[in-house]
Amino acid sequence: MKGDHHMILRVIAKCLIPLIVIYAFYVQFHGEVSAGGAFQAGVVLAVALILNALVFGLTATMRAVPPWFTRSLSAVGVMIYAGVGVWAMLKGGHYLEYQALFGEGPGGHDGQHAGIIIIEVGVLFAVSGALTTIFYALAGRVAEIRDEDW
Amino acid sequence: MILESLLVSAPEWAIDHAPVLIPVVPLIMAAMLALSPSGRLSWILSMVATAASFYFALLTLGRIQSAPGGIIEYWIGNWDVIGIEFRVDALNAMILLLVTGMGFLASIFAWSTIVAEVQKQKISLFLSAFLLCFAGLCGVTATGDAFNLFVFLEISSLSTYVLVAMGASRDRRALTSAFDYLIMGTLGASFYIIGVGFLYAATGTLNMAELAAQLPALSGNRSVQVGFAFIIVGLGLKAAMWPLHQWLPNAYAYSPSFVTMFLAATATKVALYAMIRWLFTIFNPDYAFEQAIFTFILAPLGIAAMVICSFQAVFQTDVRRMLAYSSVAQVGYMILGISIATTAGVAAGLLHLFNHSLIKGALFMAIAGICINYKGTTIRDFAGLGRSAPFTMAAFAIAALSLIGVPLTAGFISKLQLGYALFEHGWWWAVLLVVFSSFLAVLYVGRILQSIFFMPPANPRKTRKEAPLLLLVPLWILALANIYFGIDANFPAGLARDGAIAALGLEAFQ
After folding, report:
1. What is the residue-level pLDDT of chain A in tens, covering all 150 positions?
2. How far is CA B366 from the centre of its chain?
3. Is A71 a member of any domain?
4. Which residues, listed in sequence order, are joined to residue B27 by a DSSP beta bridge?
5. Max alpha carbon distance in chain A (Å)?
């Protein structure tokens, strides 16, 4: 496009956004063994969307990732987390007792592994969904009175 | 009794997991409601969730009453003492029953008022926020972990700010009052967490029972005392303890009527419960610094609340603001009862907490019924409503008399108990002040009742128009409960006594 002042910004952003998303998933799946975790991953994932909205415009981003989707994402995240708790209960354990997920005896670690990863996915959904929803709500707000009407 | 037959008929898993299911069921349901396409479906699901919580609260209470010295310990994730514990004894079983019961009644009448006051496409999200708030309050009450209490407190507070702000479609001032509440509530929560931080630094544990075991050795420790002060101020803010109550009148006056009813009946009560828990179970009234706080801070503040805020209530023109000031005054009675720090005093405080929840629940529910048909909540708007809506207003009058403390109502019993406890403690002058503040209650309640029953309708077009049946049924349940518990107070008084005994750590159920 001729006369586009933000050419460099757009190109750089286009390169960066996929990297940010990949980094988010790195933080997510590495959180178990090193620093990081689902909360940070969710924030980084939301940042990718927010950067997209800042550079390419809110409407374009909302078309790609609609607000109802981000809102539902956070609700689903909560359900995943709480659902793991209920799953453990159904298996005869206490609420959120990962050990009970697969009915293993002491010494088995599959339940601990799976439980942590699943709830972390829930947290990722909830955090990235909630942050994007908040951003949409703030950025998409239309002033009820125009400035000239004051 | 009913509780025993419930226990017998309940499946084993329900009894085992009851304490944790009380908050978990509404929490999951809240997430589902955020996805629900229709408002009516959301309403039915929210009733199901609150009813389930109520059922589990009854089971918990039954389990505690059947086991002597009853404490239920539930370790989340089975991590033992390093994890989160849900710990229910006679004290929080009572509060759980109250919160879930009021939440259930609130969700029944919710439909008729939120249809009138909330935009159609927001009803599902509104109810979702309500369930989050409900789950948070239940969690605060059930948990046995100091930090977990903070998390649940924030869950309930954040959703409360949203709920209060929803009143903006009717009155824009709801936005500023929600913002005030947000600032004050966040301050309260931060103070609480700072205090917990100090205690954690001193003891290295967040489990309440563990804290209680470690603190006697550390009662001279400065960081423990600082932590205690922060926690009491933080919870005092949440409980609207005078003079930290400034957020309350506006939040009650401008939020949707449904929210006002639910908050008035539960939110400050839960914060007060947390305060009792800290004052008596975790800390111990024997510590020198706590004695001083009872006599020189809590008692004067309680008395100031019940006198000053009753005065302020007399001069209000808006019925909801008037009752909001009255709520702060009633919190004053409870704090006065707690500050005596005897079993009788704490029991009187708890009983008043229970009865006041019934009273304010009924009053604000009746006002919600009026808001549906007549708009306007100033005293002038209430003129002549005794003729236009006799059933709604009769229930209102019963609850109003109970608020004053007329004999044969629940309010009388709890004020009587408070009076006995004060006399026993030798504070006869405080009894006089309680009587004086009840006299002020006669004045402000009298102003409303006079307008309702003895003034001609301000607007002659007002025809007979009752509140819908969905509202009248829970309203009359509350109104009749006010009378029933005024005549036969064994049930709430027993709960309060057991709660006080559990709080003060004496031999329970002797």
Report:
1. 555 678 888 899 999 999 999 999 998 888 777 767 888 999 999 999 999 999 888 888 889 888 889 989 999 999 999 999 888 888 888 888 888 888 777 777 888 888 888 888 999 999 999 999 999 988 887 766 666 665
2. 18
3. yes
4. none
5. 71
Scan residues 100-129 of A and list those with Cβ closer than 8 Å to B: 100
* Coil/strand/helix, residue B85: strand
CB A71 to CB B34 under 8 A? yes
A30 within a domain of the structure (yes/no)? yes
Judged by CB atoms within 8 Å, which residues 64-83 of A form the interface with B? 71-72, 74-76, 78-79, 82-83
Which residues from A are below 8 Å from B13, CB to CB? 89
Q: What is the pLDDT of residues B462-507, one digit of tens each?
A: 566 777 888 888 999 999 999 898 888 888 888 888 888 888 875 4
Contact between chains at B31 and A82 (C-beta distance less than 8 A): yes
Radius of gyration of chain B (CA): 21
d(CA B50, CA B53): 5
Contact of B313 with B322, CB cutoff 8 Å: yes
The CA–CA distances, whole Å, from B83 to A95, B144, B156, B283 equal: 12, 10, 22, 21
What residues form DSSP beta bridges with B74?
B86
All structural domains of chain B with their residue ranges? 285-510
Closest CA to B24 of A63, A92, A79: A79
- B297, with CB counted inside 10 A (0-12, 13-18, 19+), is middle
Domain that holds residue A82: 7-149
How high does pLDDT run on average in chain B? 87
* Per-residue pLDDT at A149: 65
For chain B, the residues whose C-beta falls within 8 A of a C-beta of chain A are 13, 17, 20, 24, 27-28, 30-32, 34-35, 74-78, 128
**Pick among B78, B122, B126, B151 to test the A interface (most A CBs inside 10 A):** B78
Amino acid at B78: N
**Residues in B touching A97 (Cβ below 8 Å):** 76-78
Residues 6+ apart with CB under 8 A from B174: B164, B165, B166, B167, B168, B254, B255
B32 interaction partners in chain A (CB closer than 8 Å): 75, 79
How big, in percent rounded to 5, are the helix, strand and coil portions of chain A?
A: 75, 0, 25
- Ranges of chain B with pLDDT below 70: 68-69, 458-464, 506-510
What is the spatial distance between Cα B100 and Cα B480, in angstroms, rounded to a whole number? 19
Q: How far apart are CA B116 and CA B314, in angstroms?
A: 30
- CA–CA distances in Å: residue A114 to residues A103, A108, B78, B320, B430: 12, 12, 17, 51, 60
The answer to whether residue A2 sits within a structural domain is no
Q: Which residues of B touch A71 (CB under 8 A)?
A: 34
Predicted pLDDT of residue B508: 38
A93: phi then psi, degrees, rounded to nearest 5: -95, -170
- Find, in chain B, the residue whose alpha carbon is nearest to that of A115: B77
Q: Do the beta carbons of residue B252 and residue B320 sit within 8 Å?
A: yes
Strands (E), A17-135: none
CB contact under 8 A, B74 and A72: no
The domain total for chain A is 1
ipTM of the complex: 0.86
The pLDDT score that the predictor gives to residue B69 is 67
Please give the angle made by the CA atoms of A9, A11 and A14, to the nearest 5 degrees.
105
Distance CA A29, CA B274 (A): 38
Q: Is residue A140 situated within a structural domain? A: yes
From CA B14, how far away is CA B60, in angstroms rounded?
10
Rounded CA gap, B6 and B10, in Å?
A: 6
